[in-house]
UniProtKB/TrEMBL annotation:
One Gene Ontology biological process: glutamate biosynthetic process
Domain 4Fe-4S ferredoxin-type as annotated: residue spans: 35-70
Keywords: Amino-acid biosynthesis, Glutamate biosynthesis, Oxidoreductase
InterPro entries, per database record: 4Fe4S_Fe-S-bd (IPR017896), DPD_II (IPR028261), FAD/NAD-bd_sf (IPR036188), FAD/NAD-binding_dom (IPR023753), Glut_synth_ssu1 (IPR006005), Glutamate_Synthase (IPR051394), Helical_ferredxn (IPR009051)
SUPFAM superfamilies found in the cross-reference section: alpha-helical ferredoxin, Nucleotide-binding domain
PROSITE patterns: 4FE4S_FER_2
Name this protein carries in UniProt: Dihydropyrimidine dehydrogenase subunit A
Native source species: Mucilaginibacter galii
GO molecular-function terms, A-Z: iron-sulfur cluster binding; oxidoreductase activity, acting on the CH-NH2 group of donors, NAD or NADP as acceptor
Pathway annotation from the record: Amino-acid biosynthesis
Length: 486
């Protein structure tokens, strides 16, 4: 253990962020780094408690007290070894994970939790700076070939692990660059794209081949991949957005969030796009939906120079303090406050949008909304909402982003052609812990299997699925499993 009294001596401190009015001037990341003394203090706050719940709070089973201890001792190589054993991409999770490990931190019962996410980011950035991040594929190969479909965090993690096991891996990606939603969903101000390029370079040095601009089910059939490979891993994400099919949906100015975010990421990355410009500049913007996608629309609209940005959430505001039904200091992620909200956004809770109103030219001019109240069950959980009588009103706006989540993966193309069975939520059916689909040699992981989720879960599923593929190919696997550490 680093410093037994550290948690009493030091308060939680996060690295300085650029002021909101400064950071909205560009799309760069705006969170700084600790100096070495501060990093040392923050790692010293880890209590090395008897039962470290942070292990099980993390979907990857990260061995957090151990790397905190190594950081406290300035033992960078050791810290990096511990962290990279369970997490292939700490540079992603260290930047954008909602850090369920911190919600599980025992210190969090009495004081703010250990700044685990930041410590993780520092370990990997120091490791890159000290040239510790190196290709790790074994010299002796198995002679087996695996195709991975989709280059998001799930596909990348599966590819990295399969390569580590000695298999020849090719990743197929329909977009022009690898990264999935890390590249073309999450804005640069949360994750600059050189971070992905740097990792892809290490993976390529490891022998992993990335074939972009190649859609399976269109350019190559799944059946062809099955024939030419010993196994196939599907990691195509959950890409069909939830719609709001109310009157006026067809007016110009009502967009799915991803059409806006993807275009802006392409603009920043100098990638070509063939869709009409969606610009928030000078407009009154409403974002419908309160999750990560919604807050990324808020941050991007502010960077475009929107006249006003409002965000509507049909749920009511969550309690800001512990209640008998919410004893742990962990609020529902859907309703969290993000750095984008600090940059300027009026949040409206318990609001239902009933109609989009347009002008004679077919352009959106306003929303018709009402306030709602929720009926609660015995556990105080919302089950049904009703309109508040007399609350109907019109709110002027010229641009709306629908950010209400994703319903399932795209079924046309690869899934339909391949005859893949779906589960009751219309995701690719493959049991957690097994990851095999109904189709011979084909496995599935990430959002395509579990439904829309988090980067940390995608990495976790990619790793676990890779282990199952390795067992399938070799009869056993030496790849790490989170079950072994948590
Ligand atoms: P994806 O990242 O979706 O990658 C799937 C890839 O497969 C895509 O590149 C796609 O083009 C490719 N593909 C699909 N079909 C084919 C095919 N037939 N042939 C070839 N390629 C194909 N999570 C967090 O933890 N923190 C956040 O801050 C956060 N912010 C988010 C913001 C937004 C706007 C969105 C939409 C999601 C966010 N998430 C966040 C969720 C997170 O990004 C996803 O859970 C995660 O990326 C899922 O990883 P994946 O690899 O399963 O799929």
């Amino acid at each position: 253990m680093g410093k037994p009294t550290g948690f009493q001596e030091y308060n939680r401190e996060l690295p300085a962020k650029k002021a909101p009015e400064e950071r909205v001037k560009n799309y760069n990341e705006f969170v700084g780094l600790y100096n070495e003394e501060k990093l040392n203090e923050q790692s010293a706050r880890c209590m090395n408690c008897g039962i470290p719940f942070c292990h099980s709070g993390c979907p990857l089973g990260n061995v957090i007290p151990e790397f905190n201890d190594a950081v406290y001792r300035h033992s960078w190589e050791e810290a990096y070894d511990i962290l990279s054993t369970t997490n292939n991409f700490p540079e992603f999770t260290g930047r954008i994970c909602p850090a369920p490990c911190e919600s599980a931190c025992v210190l969090g019962i009495n004081k703010p939790p250990v700044a685990i996410e930041e410590i993780e980011k520092h370990i990997i950035e120091i490791a890159y700076a000290k040239n510790l991040v190196k290709p790790s594929a074994p010299f002796i190969k198995t002679g087996k070939k695996v195709a991975v479909i989709g280059s998001g965090p799930a596909g990348m993690a599966a590819a990295a692990q399969l390569s580590k096991a000695g298999h020849a891996v090719t990743v197929y990606e329909r977009d022009d660059r690898p990264g999935g939603l890390l590249r073309y969903g999450i804005p640069d101000f949360k994750l600059e794209k050189w971070v992905i390029d740097r990792r892809v370079k290490v993976m390529e040095e490891d022998g992993i081949v990335f074939k972009c601009n190649t859609e399976i089910g269109k350019d190559i059939t799944l059946e062809e991949l099955q024939r030419n490979n010993d196994a196939v891993v599907l990691a195509g994400g959950s890409t069909i957005p939830r719609n709001l099919p109310i009157p006026g949906r067809e007016f110009k100015g009502v967009h799915f969030a991803m059409d806006f975010l993807k275009q802006q990421n392409k603009r920043v990355g100098n990638s070509a796009f063939d869709t009409e410009d969606i610009l928030a500049t000078g407009k009154d913007v409403v974002v419908i939906g309160g999750g990560d996608t919604g807050s990324d629309c808020v941050g991007t609209s502010n960077r475009h120079g929107a006249n006003s940005v409002r965000q509507f959430e049909v749920m009511v505001q969550p309690p800001q303090q512990r209640t008998p039904h919410m004893p742990w200091p962990n609020y529902p992620m859907l309703l969290k406050t993000t750095s984008s909200h600090e940059e300027g956004c009026e949040r409206h809770w318990g609001v239902n949008t009933k109609e989009f109103l347009g002008d004679e030219n077919g352009n959106l001019r306003a929303l018709k909304v009402t306030d709602v109240s929720w009926e609660l069950d015995v556990m105080n959980r919302p089950i049904k909402f009703a309109e508040v009588p007399g609350s109907e009103r019109e709110l002027p706006c010229q641009l709306v982003f629908l950010a209400m989540g994703f319903v399932h993966p795209q079924h046309t193309g690869m899934i339909e052609q391949g005859g893949l069975e779906l589960d009751e939520r219309k995701n690719v059916k493959a049991k957690e812990g097994v990851y095999r689909t109904n189709v011979s040699k084909v496995f599935a992981c990430g959002d395509m299997r579990r439904g829309q989720s988090l980067v940390v879960w995608a990495i976790s599923e990619g790793r676990e699925a890779a282990r199952k593929v390795d067992e399938f190919l070799m009869g056993h696997s030496m790849l790490e499993s989170k079950d072994a550490v948590s």
